Amino acid sequence: MRLKMSFFPLICLNKNNKPTKKAPKGFTLVELLIVVSIFSVVSLAIYSTFSSGASILRRIKNVDFRQQKLLLKTERFSRELREQPNYKKQLFQGSRYKINFAASLNYFPSRVTYYFDPSLFCLMRCEDKLDTIITAEGKIDPELKAKATVFLPKVKEVNFSYFYFDLGKKDYLWVEDWKADFLPLAVRMTVSTESQNYVSTIFLPTG
């Protein structure tokens, strides 16, 4: 009985003197606001960096695509100009903003006309068959009969010039109008865009 009386106070003593665990401390409202503010600033900086990088990448891709399209179109124009057939009727006429020449479209004698439309900022293309532009007197009607289509869109300006040898001056010259009954030595096409000018010189076959 003495052992029990001495053991009971010992158990109570150990039970009362046992150190209690403290409750975990949480974030205060001020600390939470600071963390949210820092996270917002970092997120905004990361988003701005990726957004500007994506915008530059899209711009580079668009410029490359426009340049490739411009090169393909000018190459087609050059090929048609070099491969024009030799008809008895002289179809080659040129000015600063317009040029027309002979062509064989689907094995049918035709006249192809390129001209710059300042109202649309486009280089237009028109195909007229010879039987629709030859008048009763046997002359070539300068008016376009077929419907023109957009060949090169979104350009600031397109102009043509013509290279020949002047016998009087004994020198090679460039002119902006061509009404002679023979072909020039070369045609130069200048395409102006918002960012740059592209110049293509096409030498025509002689003889």
Structural description of this entry:
- The protein is an alpha+beta fold.
- It has 3 helices and 9 strands.
- The protein has helices at about 1-15, 30-80, 130-135; strands at about 95, 100-105, 110-115, 120-130, 150, 155-165, 170-175, 185-190, 195-205.
- The strands form 2 sheets. The protein has a 5-stranded antiparallel beta sheet with strand order 1-2-3-4-5.
- Strand 6 and strand 7 form a beta hairpin.
- Mean pLDDT is about 80; it is low at about 1-5.
Report the portion of residues in β strands.
Answer: 25-35%
Number of helices: 3
Number of strands: 9
- Taking the alpha carbons of the first and last residues, their distance comes to 138 Å
Reading the helices and strands in chain order gives: HHEEEEHEEEEE
Topology diagram in text:
Layout: H1 2-17, H2 29-82, E1 93-94, E2 98-105, E3 108-117, E4 122-129, H3 130-133, E5 149-152, E6 157-166, E7 171-175, E8 186-192, E9 197-203
Antiparallel strand pairs: 1-2, 2-3, 3-4, 4-5, 6-7, 6-8, 8-9
Record keyword descriptors for this entry:
207 residues; 29% strand; single chain; four-stranded antiparallel beta sheet; alpha+beta
